[in-house]
Design a protein that fits this description.
With 191 residues, the protein is mostly helical. It contains 2 helices and 3 strands, in the order βββαα. A 3-stranded antiparallel β-sheet has the order 1-2-3. Helix 1 runs parallel beside helix 2. The longest helix is centred in the C-terminal third of the chain and has 95 residues.
Length: 191
């Protein structure tokens, strides 16, 4: 048969050799057996700690590479919300956040162009309203002048009609005088 026993910090192994009365016994100290296990355990613990440290470092680097551009765009959005559209953020990365920042910068440029177009249109509307106002004022002045001219023509026509009436009376008187002279001439010619 065979077996093992623990004896005085040693592993004692035994085995009966077949077809003999002999028993083979071996003694191995536990320190020897455990030294390899302890080396492997130490290597595993060191490897795990090293991987944890590397993972933490990579996590920090990755989170920083994400958080910094996001903070930049957050600040840019805050400034844009306050009305400052002159700021831009540059991100030289080739990831989605860099694309987002580039798109946001383009959006700000489009808003600036739109505001400029609205301002230009407002100026044109103001200029047009000033022209309409000036035209209305000129039309008012012209209509007053026309009204005054018509009134003067009417007054002149009335004066002329009165003078024509006076002239007609004078012509009637003259005609009567001519008729009297004619009658007097006939009387004188008959004499």
């Amino acid at each position: 048969d065979s077996g093992s026993i623990n004896f005085n910090k040693n592993a004692v192994l035994y085995k009966k050799i077949n077809e003999t009365d002999w028993i083979l016994i071996g003694k191995i100290p536990f320190s020897y057996i455990n030294s390899e296990i302890n080396k492997i355990r130490l290597s595993i613990v060191i490897s795990i700690l090293l991987f944890i440290f590397i993972s933490l470092f990579l996590s920090f680097v990755i989170s920083t590479s994400i958080a910094n551009p996001l903070n930049k765009i957050k600040n840019l959005i805050g400034e844009a919300k306050k009305g400052n559209l002159t700021l831009t953020v540059n991100d030289s990365g080739k990831d989605e956040i860099a694309d987002l920042i580039a798109d946001f910068n383009e959006m700000l440029e489009s808003i600036k162009k739109l505001i400029k177009q609205v301002g230009d249109s407002s100026k044109k509307v103001i200029e047009s309203s000033q022209l309409v106002n000036e035209s209305a004022s000129q039309s008012y002045i012209n209509s007053r002048q026309i009204s005054e001219v018509i009134n003067q023509v009417a007054v002149g026509s009335a004066d002329q009609a009165e003078e024509i009436g006076t002239c007609a009376e004078s012509i009637n008187i003259l005609s009567q005088g001519i008729n009297e002279v004619e009658e007097n001439m006939k009387i004188v010619s008959d004499v």
